[in-house]
Amino acid sequence: xxxxxxxxxxxxxxxxxxxxxxxxxxxxxxxxxxxxxxxxxxxxxxxxxxxxxxxxxxxxxxxxxxxxxxxxxxxxxxxxxxxxxxxxxxxxxxxxxxxxxxxxxxxxxxxxxxxxxxxxxxxxxxxxxxxxxxxxxxxxxxxxxxxxxxxxxxxxxxxxxxxxxxxxxxxxxxxxxxxxxxxxxxxxxxxxxxxxxxxxxxxxxxxxxxxxxxxxxxxxxxxxxxxxxxxxxxxxxxxxxxxxxxxxxxxxxxxxxxxxxxxxxxxxxxxxxxxxxxxxxxxxxxxxxxxxxxxxxxxxxxxxxxxxxxxxxxxxxxxxxxxxxxxxxxxxxxxxxxxxxxxxxxxxxxxxxxxxxxxxxxxxxxxxxxxxxxxxxxxxxxxxxxxxxxxxxxxxxxxxxxxxxxxxxxxxxxxxxxxxxxxxxxxxxxxxxxxxxxxxxxxxxxxxxxxxxxxxxxxxxxxxxxxxxxxxxxxxxxxxxxxxxxxxxxxxxxxxxxxxxxxxxxxxxxxxxxx
Amino acid sequence: xxxxxxxxxxxxxxxxxxxxxxxxxxxxxxxxxxxxxxxxxxxxxxxxxxxxxxxxxxxxxxxxxxxxxxxxxxxxxxxxxxxxxxxxxxxxxxxxxxxxxxxxxxxx
Lengths: 515, 108
Prior knowledge:
Helix content of chain A is 36%, strand content 28%. Chain A is α+β, with helices and mostly antiparallel strands. In chain A, the strands form 2 sheets. In chain A, strands 1, 2, 3, 6, 7, 8, 9, 10, 11, 14, 15, 16 and 17 form a 13-stranded antiparallel beta sheet that branches. In chain A, strands 5-4-13-12 form a 4-stranded antiparallel beta sheet, with no helix packed on it. In chain A, a hairpin with a 5-residue loop joins strand 4 (195-200) and strand 5 (206-210). In chain A, helix 5 (72-82) crosses helix 14 (311-335). Chain A is elongated, with a radius of gyration of 30 Å. In chain A, 30% of the residues are buried. By secondary structure, chain B is mainly beta.
């Protein structure tokens, strides 16, 4: 016992560990109530009487339960927290940062533009790695999505503001931030145009305009709030959970988790004297077990640094892999919630139309245990500004939609197909308003419009759209082939019935963005 | 069939085993725990579906187990499948912030 204490005192001058912030050690133990209770009891027990070794019916938990090898996630978190507190780790983190700065520019060709691109690329890359920003490309539209906690955490250097997993539990503030997300959509240049005709809202003259045009532009932005349950562990859909976890286990994230844990724990095994660690805990005087455990973990940190000065690079890689794994689990648990509710605000900047805004409520429910999902949407949409001289209501339309998704049987060699039946209804308060930009000619004449003109289309009333779709997965769902038939009585801007059959191809880009 | 992993007598590792002999790890828990093993890795080999069978490697290596469950606090057990019987290796009360465990195994 004296030997252990002496080693601790030598390792940490002035006994700093005893006065140190207890956040790290609390975090190491306190999240599991049974272990926490047992540890408190062991702390009170006389030295030499605490249970060790493999568990028994009488002692399901032993001192072995607090070994870093049996709390690998907690050890990584502990080392990261202590990296700001322990001199050996602080020095190493600083050295790591210096290396990054020195080696960054040397990889480039040396031109200013290349360096600038590299920095921007790194920021986006790191942001993606942290889950702060996701990029989705659909057709000609690129959408960047960000979570408030992810983006803010990226900039303050605290992933997700400490809310690394909704399943684990978060502070009220970070949980609130995890609920907020935003997106911005950019339309890429397109040569495809569609001409619509109507009447000038002010003069009554006929007019026409193209509703698609070339040039990249912001087409929409949105802010969304997802209502999460207090706990994500309120589902009893065991089979679906198991299936989703096993599917997730096939991903690159799971490989990364194993590789990075092995990289860190391999060094832990080499640096830690397991028997010494247990002996120190066993021999701790009553009331000192917390301090002795922290001292042993700090000794391990010190030994890790002594053996490998770059250990924190591996710890950080493991922390990133844990983060990715936790996000994956959060997604699974969120998907399994029987009732989901979201509120979304969208700012739309459609080409050739006045800017619009809408507020949308989204509710989904799994009514039975089987793979059946019902989703309902309700939205109101309004013009941000009604052009002068135009007599239309600021309220543009009301939208209602319902969708049923039903997983069909598994197709051999492919996977489970999904049947989707959806209906969409939109009530237009007035005829749709479009804008003919200045410089366009009034159709049938050579008159060039001196300024933007607003035009009403004869589209007041009801729009109904029905769709039936079967989605077939390929390559474990990485590629999906949706086959659909859509019918509508008319569209927003063109008062004609439309029937359309479509075969598509979608790619799940997650596997590309996963690191 | 005898169990491959033997509790360490020196305390320098968790378990010892004869190098080259195989062992299979399983986990058990209550029906309503939703326990699912995601992956295990040992000595450069990663397995993501049962059976989780490895060969004891020379030296001391780390066995990592990633599991998930739907009931925080559920009492779970890590066992070695020894043919008609099992050997209890560890008891875990599921902690979502530490959904994994590991052992030092020395082959000799």
